[in-house]
């Protein structure tokens, strides 16, 4: 039974950053998203479901002077509502054959799928997105899926292949995150792109605007 505080709290937004293939940049997207939403004043919990715990390592390096982000290690199922949380971000591992993880994806309000511009990554993403689309909850449009091109060099032929693939999916292709050293600089300090000094990463911050707009336009629902 939900507590009185849970009944009075605003709806929880659950965002899963997912791709069955490892190395797609899920932790980079999850940590930068957490930092961006925390700077907006949201109470963010970053749930690290990957055995490597990269997101929690990033969080341990985060300076106390920056907007706080709560971290939690999750091996199976995330709690219905972590304490003091408006937005729960799930940094998921590769694979997704685990039943508990599939359940977490089904409970998400939004699934963000980062995809790299390589033939292998494009094929893997196609299979993963197909699996998501046959999920009953997603097919009934209770969970939204959006795709993000990650670590992309727009002048390369592989990026054109990625653009064609994403454009043919019939789902939101939100933005292209360029390959930028600013992500490494920020990550080393436990920061996100939005935490860097104004102007230092303006081009990268601009590329995040469609993601934040997409999330802001979605009404959160309490999912139990």
UniProtKB/TrEMBL annotation:
Q: Which CDD domains match?
A: ParAB_family (cd02042)
According to the entry, every stretch annotated as the CobQ/CobB/MinD/ParA nucleotide binding domain falls at: 15-190
Cite the InterPro entries for this sequence: CobQ/CobB/MinD/ParA_Nub-bd_dom, DNA_Partitioning_ATPase, P-loop_NTPase
Q: Which Pfam families match?
A: CbiA (PF01656)
Xref: PANTHER family: COBQ_COBB_MIND_PARA NUCLEOTIDE BINDING DOMAIN-CONTAINING PROTEIN (PTHR13696:SF96), P-LOOP CONTAINING NUCLEOSIDE TRIPHOSPHATE HYDROLASE (PTHR13696)
What is the name of this protein?
Chromosome partitioning protein
**Per the UniProt entry, what species is this protein from, by scientific name?**
Thiohalospira halophila DSM 15071
């Amino acid at each position: 039974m939900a507590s009185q505080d849970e009944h009075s709290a605003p709806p929880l937004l659950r965002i899963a950053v997912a791709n069955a293939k490892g190395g797609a940049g899920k932790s980079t997207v999850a940590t930068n998203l957490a930092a961006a939403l925390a700077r907006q004043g949201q109470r963010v919990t970053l749930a690290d479901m990957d055995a490597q715990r990269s997101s929690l390592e990033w969080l341990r390096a985060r300076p106390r002077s920056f907007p706080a982000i709560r971290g939690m290690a999750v091996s199976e199922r995330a709690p219905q509502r972590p304490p003091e949380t408006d937005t729960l971000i799930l940094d998921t591992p590769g694979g997704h054959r685990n039943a508990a993880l599939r359940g977490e994806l089904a409970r998400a309000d939004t699934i963000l799928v980062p995809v790299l511009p390589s033939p292998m990554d494009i094929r893997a993403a196609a299979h993963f997105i197909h699996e998501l689309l046959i999920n009953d909850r997603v097919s009934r449009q209770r969970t939204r899926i959006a795709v993000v091109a990650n670590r992309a060099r727009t002048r390369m032929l592989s990026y054109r292949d990625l653009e064609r693939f994403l454009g043919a999916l019939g789902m939101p292709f939100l933005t292209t995150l360029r390959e930028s050293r600013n992500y490494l600089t920020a990550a080393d300090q436990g920061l996100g792109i939005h935490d860097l000094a104004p102007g230092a990463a303006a081009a990268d911050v601009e590329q995040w605007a469609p993601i934040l707009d997409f999330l802001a336009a979605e009404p959160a629902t309490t999912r139990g």
